[in-house]
Design brief:
The chain is an alpha/beta fold. It contains five helices and five strands. The chain has a five-stranded parallel β-sheet, with helices on both faces.
């Protein structure tokens, strides 16, 4: 686990329950959550402040959706690594996110093992 101990992440999700779940899984796997955003509109400022190794991003959020947020983030850092977290049934949105520049995605509900596997594939 030591290899990931320095890896940092920002969680972007409008649901407190999902942010809490993601944070628990990430921290138990040795990642450090440096910030949480409730909406995509917050990510650019948070990213510039914390410079995380990667971001987990919900797609459906009220003020700014994840796809728009990914585009905004990649304008600031074209190398930003963003893992989209989406509900089943939104495959078209996942494809749209990939076209927007997302690094990867995982569908809710997910297991901790699935989440960590996706993260490791993006970071390696």
């Amino acid at each position: 686990m030591n290899s990931v101990n320095e890896k940092t992440v920002i969680i972007v999700d409008d649901t407190g329950f999902m942010r809490k779940k993601l944070k628990k899984v990430l921290e138990q796997s040795g990642y450090r959550v440096v910030h949480e955003c409730e909406d995509g509109s917050e990510i650019v400022d948070a990213y510039q402040k914390h410079h995380p190794d990667f971001v987990t991003m919900d797609i459906v959020m009220p003020k700014m959706d994840g796809i728009t947020a990914v585009k905004s983030l990649l304008e600031v850092d074209e190398n930003a690594k963003v893992i989209m977290v989406s509900s089943l049934g939104l495959e078209n949105k996942v494809m749209e996110a990939a076209r927007a520049g997302a690094s990867s995605f995982i569908l809710k509900p997910f297991s901790p093992e699935e989440l960590i596997a996706v993260i490791e594939s993006v970071l390696n």
